[in-house]
UniProtKB/TrEMBL annotation:
Residues 527-591 form the External alternative NADH-ubiquinone oxidoreductase-like C-terminal domain. This is NADH:ubiquinone reductase (non-electrogenic). Its EC number is 1.6.5.9. PANTHER family: EXTERNAL NADH-UBIQUINONE OXIDOREDUCTASE 1, MITOCHONDRIAL-RELATED, NADH DEHYDROGENASE.
Length: 595
C-alpha cells in the first residue's frame, strides 16, 4: 500500500511520464520510518495534553479555599460601598451648597404665614409643597419687610404674612425671632464644649432656598395677632434697626409654632440670677458663667468658704434637660478640670433639685433607679420633693419634704424646668375668651385648628393637648399639617376642574376623589421612645416594643443614643460637624477658655 501511495519520482528536468521511475528500496525504508514517527507522535499527543491538563488542574492550580473567596467578596463589597458613600455624600454636599433657581412669587396664590422656627414649624416647612403656595417666613430677632411687590399683589387678592406657614395655593411667609433651627437634644452638650453650638443649628434659608418656589423669610418677633382682620404685627428687636421697625402683615392662613418661654412660677429672683437652658444664647451664658466661677475660685487668697460656694453648681429641674446638663457638667469635671485645675477640681459639687418624688418621671421605674444610682456614683446629689421658694444672688431658699426651709449657696444656678405661654399668645387667648379657656396653651381641635378662629393652626408646645410638650410631638404635628395642606391643594385643583367639566362618568369620578380628600383623618401621635444621657458615657433608653416597652441603660445604650441623635440631625452638614466635635473632644479635650 505504501509503495502504491508513493508518487513516481521524476527528474526535475523531465516532464514526461516515461521519464519517471519507481523509488528504490532505501528510499522506501526512509519513507516508512518518517511515516511511523509521525503516526506515533499523532497518537501520543492527545494523551500528553490530557495528562498535562489533569496535572495543572489538580496540583499546579489548587482550588481556592471557601473562606478566602468569601473574604474577597466582602472586601470588594466594602470598596464599592465606600466609593458609593463618598459619591452620594459628595452629591448631597454639592446640591446643599448650590441651590437651584426658584419659581417667582405668584400673586395669584394664597399666603401662608409661619410663626416660629422650632421643631413644628421647620417640619411643616420642610414637607410643604411650595408649588401650590407663596411662602413667607419671618424668623429671628429682627424683621424687615419692604417688599413692594407684595403690597401691590395684595390689592389683587387677599394675602397675609405671619410667623410660619404654607397652604394650598398660597404664598409662604416665615416669622421668627431667630433665623435658624436648633437641635435642642444636644443643647446641654454645648454648655461645656462637648459640641460646638454652631454644629447643631441649621439656618432656615438652607431649607427655604431648596424649595421649588421662593419663600420669604423675616427675622422678627410677633407682638399681636388679629384673627378678625387676619393680620399680625411684627417688630424688629435687633440692635441695628432700619427706617422701618414695625410692620402689619395680612395672611390667608396662619401657622403658629412659636413654642413656649421659660416658666418662673412667680418665684422671686429667678429671672435676675438664674440661667435658663432653652436657646443658644442660654448655653453661651452658662458656659461663660461656669468658667467665671472656676477662675474666680482659683483667684489668689480666695477664702475656703467662698471657694466652696463658687464651685457649687445647682440645677433646678429633674427632667431630661436638667439631668443631661448635670451629666455633661460631671464629664467636664472628670475629663478636663482634673487635668487643668487640679487644686480646685476636687471641690466642685453638683446638686440636682426636683420638686417631684423622682427625676425623669417619663421613664420607667427601673431606669429612674439606674439613673439615681449612677448619679450617686458620680457624686451628684439629688434633692427630690424639694421646692425652690426664692432665688437670691448667692443662695437659694428651698422647702424640703418635711416643710422645713433652708438656704443652699451656689456659684452657678441653671433653671431647667417649666414652660409658659408667650405674651402675644396670651393676648390672642384674651381675644377668644369663649373658646380659649385653657391657661397652659392654645386649645385646638383634632385637626390642629385653633378653636374660635378661622384659618389659624397651632402646633407644638404652644398648644394645650393631651400630648407631652416634646420635640417628637411637635415634629409629627408639623409633618401631619404639611400633608393635610398638600391634600387640600390637590382638592382645590380638582374642584376647579369639576366646575368646567360636563356631566358624565368622568365628572362623577372626580367628585368621588374630592369626597375622599375631604375625609381628613385627625392627628395621631406615634411615640418613638425616650432617650437621656446620664454621664460617664452611659445613657438610658425607654423604647416601645409591640404592646410594651423595653428599657435599657449603660455604655451600649450610650452608643445607641449617639447614633440616634446623629441620624436625626437635620442635614449631612450637621451630622459631619457633630461627629467631628465628638472626635475633637476625645483627641484634644474640651476647650476651657472663657469667651
Amino acid at each position: 500500500t505504501l509503495i502504491k501511495a508513493t508518487p513516481l519520482y521524476c527528474s526535475s528536468e523531465q516532464h514526461t511520464h516515461t521519464q519517471c521511475r519507481l523509488p528504490t528500496s532505501s528510499e522506501v525504508h526512509t519513507a516508512l520510518r518518517v511515516a511511523a514517527r509521525s503516526l506515533t507522535l499523532a497518537t501520543r499527543q492527545p494523551a500528553i495534553n490530557f495528562v498535562s491538563h489533569r496535572f495543572e488542574s489538580t496540583i499546579v492550580q489548587p482550588a481556592a479555599k471557601p473562606w478566602r473567596s468569601g473574604w474577597r467578596i466582602l472586601r470588594r463589597t466594602a470598596y464599592v460601598g465606600t466609593a458609593a458613600w463618598f459619591v452620594y455624600g459628595g452629591y448631597n454636599i454639592y446640591t446643599a451648597r448650590h441651590p437651584l433657581a426658584q419659581a417667582a412669587f405668584d400673586p395669584e396664590k394664597k399666603t401662608i404665614v409661619i410663626l416660629g422656627s422650632g421643631w413644628a414649624s421647620t417640619a411643616f416647612l420642610k414637607d410643604i409643597d411650595t408649588v401650590n403656595y407663596n411662602v413667607v417666613c419671618i424668623r429671628g430677632s429682627h424683621f424687615r419687610c419692604q417688599h413692594k411687590d407684595y403690597a401691590q399683589s395684595r390689592a389683587k387678592s387677599r394675602r397675609t404674612f405671619c410667623f410660619t406657614l404654607t397652604f394650598p395655593i398660597p404664598s409662604q411667609v416665615i416669622v421668627s425671632p431667630r433665623n435658624y433651627f436648633l437641635f435642642t437634644p444636644l443643647l446641654p452638650s454645648t454648655t461645656v464644649g462637648t459640641v460646638d453650638f454652631r454644629s447643631i443649628i441649621e439656618p432656615i434659608r438652607y431649607i427655604t432656598r431648596h424649595k421649588s418656589r421662593e419663600v420669604k423669610v423675616y427675622e422678627a418677633e410677633c407682638s399681636d395677632i388679629d384673627p378678625v382682620k387676619k393680620t399680625i404685627v411684627i417688630n424688629d428687636n435687633s440692635e441695628i434697626k432700619g427706617s422701618v421697625a414695625q410692620q402689619s402683615l395680612p395672611y390667608d392662613y396662619l401657622i403658629i409654632g412659636t413654642g413656649c418661654q421659660n416658666a418662673t412660677f412667680g418665684i422671686k429672683g429667678v429671672e435676675e440670677y438664674a440661667c435658663f437652658l432653652k436657646e443658644v444664647w442660654d448655653a453661651q451664658k452658662i458656659r461663660t458663667r461656669l468658667m467665671d466661677c472656676i477662675e474666680t475660685a482659683a483667684f489668689a487668697g480666695q477664702p475656703e468658704e467662698e471657694i466652696e460656694r463658687l464651685l457649687h453648681m445647682v440645677v433646678v429641674g429633674g427632667g431630661p434637660t436638667g439631668v443631661e446638663y448635670a451629666a455633661e457638667l460631671h464629664d467636664f469635671l472628670k475629663d478636663d478640670l482634673v487635668d487643668w485645675y487640679p487644686d480646685i477640681a476636687g471641690k466642685v459639687n453638683i446638686t440636682l433639685v426636683e420638686a417631684l418624688q423622682t427625676v425623669l418621671p417619663v421613664f420607667s421605674k427601673q431606669l429612674i433607679e439606674y439613673t439615681e444610682t449612677t448619679f450617686k456614683e458620680q457624686n451628684i446629689k439629688i434633692l427630690t420633693k424639694t421646692m425652690v421658694k426664692e432665688v437670691r444672688q448667692k443662695e437659694i431658699l428651698v422647702k424640703d419634704a418635711d416643710g422645713s426651709e433652708r438656704t443652699i449657696p451656689y456659684g452657678l444656678l441653671v433653671w431647667a424646668t417649666g414652660n409658659t405661654t408667650r405674651p402675644f399668645i396670651r393676648s390672642l387667648m384674651e381675644k377668644l375668651p369663649e373658646s380659649q379657656t385653657v391657661r397652659r396653651g392654645l386649645a385646638v381641635d383634632e385637626l390642629l385648628r385653633l378653636q374660635g378662629a378661622e384659618d389659624i393652626w397651632a402646633l407644638g408646645d404652644v398648644t394645650a393637648t393631651k400630648y407631652a410638650p416634646t420635640a417628637q410631638v411637635a415634629s409629627q404635628q408639623g409633618k401631619y399639617l404639611a400633608r393635610m395642606f398638600n391634600l387640600m391643594a390637590i382638592k382645590d385643583k380638582l374642584e376647579a376642574q369639576v366646575v368646567a367639566m360636563s356631566e358624565g362618568p368622568e365628572k362623577d369620578k372626580q367628585i368621588r376623589k374630592i369626597n375622599r380628600l375631604k375625609d381628613i383623618k385627625p392627628f395621631h401621635y406615634s411615640h418613638q421612645g425616650s432617650l437621656a444621657y446620664i454621664g460617664s458615657e452611659k445613657a438610658i433608653a425607654d423604647l416601645p416594643l409591640f404592646h410594651g416597652n423595653i428599657s435599657a441603660g449603660g455604655v451600649a445604650t450610650y452608643v445607641f443614643w449617639r447614633s440616634a441623635y446623629l441620624s436625626n440631625l437635620f442635614s449631612i452638614r450637621n451630622r459631619t460637624l457633630v461627629a467631628m466635635d465628638w472626635i475633637k473632644k476625645n483627641v484634644f479635650g474640651r476647650d476651657i477658655s472663657r469667651e
